[in-house]
Amino acid sequence: MKKLTKTLSLVLVVAMVLSLCVIGAAATFTDNSKVTTDYSEAVGIMTDLAVVKGYPDGSFKPAGTLTRAEACVLMANMTLGTASAAALAPTTVSFKDVPASFWGYKYVEYCYQCGYIAGTGNGNFTPGATLTGYQWALMLMRILGYDMTSLTTGNWQINTAKVYYAADTQFSKVAISGAAVTRETASQMAYDALFASTNKTTGYPVYLRTYNAAGSAYTDTLIKTYSSLTDAAAATTALNNGAGYTANATAGANVKYYYYGTETTSSGTGTLAYTVFGVTKNETAADAYGRPATAYTVAAYTAKKNATVAASYGWNALTASKTVAGAPVATYTTAVSASELYKTLGYAAIIDAAGSKVTTTAPTPGYLKADMTVDATNNITVSAKAVTLGGAGVVTEIYATSTANHYMVVQIRPTLAKVASVSNVAATATAGAYTKYSIAGMDCRVYSTVVDKTQDITNVTFSGTVAKGDFVMIYGNPTAGYTVNAVKTVSGAVTGYASATNSWTIGGTAYPQTTAAIFSSAANGTIAATATSATYALDTYGNVVGSIDLGVTNYVFVLAVDSASYLNTTTNKITTTAVATAIMTDGTLNTIKVYTGTTVNVGDIDTTTANNQTVGLYTYKINPTTGQYVLTYVSNQLKPTANTGKIVKGDPTLISNTLYANSETKYYVATFNSATTTYTGVTTFVGYANVTSMNVPTNAAAIDVNGDGIAEVVFLDTTAAVGATANYVYVTGSYSSDGVTNTYDVIVNGTSDKMALTNAGGTVLTPGLYTISAGVGTPVTVTADQAVVLATGAGVDGKYGATLKYFTYNNGLLSGCATVDGTYSVACGVAASTPVYTFANGACTTSTAEALSGTTGSVIVMAVNSTGTAVQAIYVVA
To answer: pTM for the complete prediction?
Structure first.
């Protein structure tokens, strides 16, 4: 396949594409940009393994030359590992110009004793001379164990090239010559040798395996490669029977020779990379974004030998691996036209749906078509010129596949989100200190200290300064890590839209609208030509994303609906309309006129749907002519679990693993007067640390404007519409009898009294709340929904929560707890004037709810309306 040049739609794409490589190659040198793209992966991996090192000033100098002494360092590192190579201590001096005082003496001596190098004549090695491509190839073939005796016949350079190119197909990546080899070229050739399979039919290697003292790990060193399996087996037997060696040693300082005769090349274990460093690679892998990649993994036995090996390489310590994405043949950040695809990829090109992927915060198979829908089934034939890809703000990368003229597409879409919180977490004995950023529900961490390399891992890269409350573009996932870019903003009135360029005129300037960014709340962040002056976010490429004036001003929480008549001053006629009692987003209680169409229909105040919903969360627009609110029910409102759910003081959880509160969340709780059957106000709590614990009522909603998982406002209607008031009488349990009629001590109308009552069953009445049927003295037990008994041991009543004994009143809310020092939970909303009847020592005293302050009794009964939603009286029996 022909090699294509990367095409960029915008220069700005470079910054973003580079930042996508969360796990990349050659990311440590100051002159990284000077490393040839084709060699960057090899330079990165060889640097990770410390086979190749940079200079003290932080540079790599890729175009610099490699000396003969430096080549010996590389070969020693490749065959022994860096630690063992550094520990070499030879006792012989083989070259006059490489004395024991020479900085690279031990490396040169080791390579000479192994047969990897030869001198330059007259007993010299000439360590400072530059190395040619032929010389470096010859040395690499020797360390791989290839038989190079044929070099003595004919031209040694030609013979070396023949063996080099035939040894492994990957060696053909570098064209060797008699010119000085550069540092980046030498790194690529060393990388090729490190991962070249030694299990070829042209060579069967014999290794020396050395065990540690515990026998739990070993190191393999290549001795020689033989041309036949028979020769390798015979040599192994002879070596293992030699003096000083134990054939089957597994512990101590004993060693064993062995040969590879059955392993397959696909396993990746017949390489120096594996035998020395324990590293295998998979060239058909994909990175966390779905891009074709090479995956490097540290083998289990090496990790066992050195548990921190992956971390010491700078790799993912959790998986002991590193994934390096390949280079795309083309990259775009705007829509890719069919003609552009045709021009760049050629007439016969096909975009394969299989293998292509769209990545937001979670990968999605397929590719994005022109209309931004995902196609996971149909291939694109470029010559048809019928389909375009991607869109403004989408990073669209095209990769070649192993099949000629077939390509796959990887596209990355960021999300616009608000930084919900930034907190610093101190170090502990088991974990390092870090700064935690909560963004769109993602846990992004930047570690300042490391205690445990397997868990103290920074997983986010920032572009620009980011603080709490800021809006950002975020993309990535837990595997790849996250990239967060601070957004630019533009303010002004939206005065027009151009369909040809898909751009909005904001403050007099046209900005293309992104087709990439997902606003993390689908109901917000939009752009409208009728908008007044507002602030809008721009993505990395200057595309407008959406409004970030995310105040919650266009919501109302409806508590009740009725109809009302008023004088229309425009028509001078009486107009009847629906009115709603609602909590506004500033926490005030308001009565608003609701537009319901041509007729009043209080059963359906939402004219956009037919859901007959009269209470709950709505968005609104105001009709400028009538001043009426045009309401739209928020059917997908974030709603804390009704009845069974709880809001607990000090607990930020609203909906488990979905929605949370923070120190700025406002809780608005409606207060209700059961006597007048009207809503009287709103109690406000700010922050989850300050809210009173309460059960979540049926009518409840939360607003998460920017979709960051943090609610700005929580609405709670603890009291619904009130039913008819019952004629209650509380029977205390004491009575006298004349043998015919039982006269009971009762509480009625706020006073203690005696009343002759007849039980329909003829038995004695038990203590409790009753109504009197038509005044004839026959009591009817109040249903469970109308009389909630709260007493020690009474259990859960199913309506207002667990057993409550101690009551207190707090600004419209009746709260209680089971123990005097317990956490109070809201039972319901009551009016301050709700009557409280306390019966003690045969007498009844009357007070109101606002006087309750830790009031206790052996039995507490709440008389509620027929629907069990409003408290009409409270009975306390001491």
So the answer is: 0.53
